[in-house]
User: Fold these one by one.
Assistant:
Number 1:
Amino acid sequence: MAPKVTSSGRIGREVADRVPRRCEPVRSVPMTEPSAVEDRIVPDPRHQLGRLGERLALEHLVRLGYKLVSANHRTRFGEIDLIVRDATTLVFVEVKTRRSHRPDRHWERLDSRKRAQVRRMAAAWLAETPARPHADDLRFDAIGITIDPRGAIVALEHLEAAF
């Protein structure tokens, strides 16, 4: 049945109530302060610990004279923690961070499967990055960092050519 049209050309009230109306414009809602939003988002403490360890490892490497090439580069095989270079060597760095109350060693978590994964990630980065810095040598280092509950370094172990 066709809707009733009045002499003015408008649809009658009873029909207009059944016809969907246009959406009302969205009203602007004031943003909350960023700190209030951040308080509601609870980050993963392991992720925070890992990022802290990577930052401390990078500071260590910079003190040794290395320059940052890339940090937290994602490949289809995973994420490379740090890629640094000196005058002749491009270094792929795997960082292992733990709390001081954990009894395990850093290197126990750097098993053959993880080493193979880091090699695959490095090969992917080399293939994906044609504008990379020239280096005569490639090397895979491992840095193990132990952090106390306040976030201070208890120990830092740097194994050059770890694998």
Number 2:
Amino acid sequence: MIIRPFAPSDAEKINEIFTQHHAGSFSVPPLERGVISGVTTNDASEITGFGIVTLLAEAILVMDLNCSARERKETIEKLIWLAIQGVSGKMDGIHAFVQDPRFAAVLKKHFGFRTCKGEALYLEL
């Protein structure tokens, strides 16, 4: 088993593997847009896997919760607008890792955020 850099000629086989085994679970970003990507091949040089690391846009909002409800609403609107302006055309979306279920509901209802598939995991380096 070896690992080597992704080549555009690998895309058809990667898409075939993805469609057969993972299509209902998650989506794969454009294969050439990663920070780093590679494929694993067996002794017969057949692709057995593909990995990609992408950049992730995360919106972090720090708000004064002592201000009025109207000010909090406007603050959220302006900060989400800022996040969208900052990544539009550069990234596919924005993540928000939210601790408060009520705030998550606000982001979903008023700003179109959705629950991510799977469990968010973090590897500290």
